[in-house]
Amino acid sequence: MKFTQGLVLAGAVAGVLAGASLAQAASLAVGKKLELKVDPAKMKDEQTRLWTKFGGWCAIKDWHPAIASCEETTEGDAKFRILTLKDGGKIKEKLLDEKPNFYRYEIVESPLPVKNYQAQFALTPDDDDQDEINFAWSAVFDANGKSDQEAKDVITGIFKAGLDNIKATAGAK
């Protein structure tokens, strides 16, 4: 792991912690980063293209191999997504914050072995490498019904599967 990668992940986890009261009580953190090479002359266009393809609130159904469908709903001013997993399970997530190339969310209901779960998903150019763009996905949470390590392994596996699939389908150089 490059030093900058560690800083990006630490920053991403710190960002989740800074924006979330539930997350402040969470004791576990997981972060994964995907580095994609792009033409430096087309960095802005590539960032727009990649976020359009992979960054929408319900776009996860198109790139995560465990997700069969995603349904967006609104309750009052709050925006939610219901993820139906390929095994039939359902995850309800609430959008907490959304900015260009970034969103932060929490799990409201889930079969996953976690509670107090808040995460963020972002796409940013690499400050140190002018031909690189990074997807960063990080979360803070507590284990629920499993050991800390088992809960971390589940979330790490989810992040890895999703980012690996983005890498396989991104079309970057």
Written account of the structure:
This protein has 173 residues and is an alpha+beta fold. The protein has a single domain, classed as START domain (Alpha-D-Glucose-1,6-Bisphosphate, Chain A, domain 4). The protein is built from five helices and seven strands, in the order H-H-E-H-H-E-E-E-E-E-E-H. A seven-stranded antiparallel sheet has the order 1-7-6-5-4-3-2, sandwiched between helices. Strand 3 (78-85) and strand 4 form a beta hairpin. The longest helix has 22 residues, at 148-169. Mean pLDDT is 87; it is low at 1-18.
Summarize the structure.
This protein is an alpha+beta fold and 173 residues long. The protein has helices spanning 3-18, 21-25, 43-54, 60-63, 148-169; strands at 28-37, 67-75, 78-85, 90-99, 102-109, 114-125, 132-143.
- What is the CATH first-level class name? Alpha Beta
Q: Can you give the mean pLDDT? A: 87
Tally the helices: 5
| CATH level-two architecture | 2-Layer Sandwich
The profile of the biggest β sheet is: 7 strands, antiparallel
Order of strands across the widest beta sheet?
A: 1-7-6-5-4-3-2
Ranges where pLDDT stays below 50 over 5 or more residues in a row are 1-18
Number of strands: 7
Strand residue percentage: 35-45%
The CATH topology name reads Alpha-D-Glucose-1,6-Bisphosphate, Chain A, domain 4
**CA(first)-CA(last) distance:** 21 Å
> What radius of gyration results from the CA coordinates?
16 Å
Total count of domains = 1
Order of helices and strands: HHEHHEEEEEEH
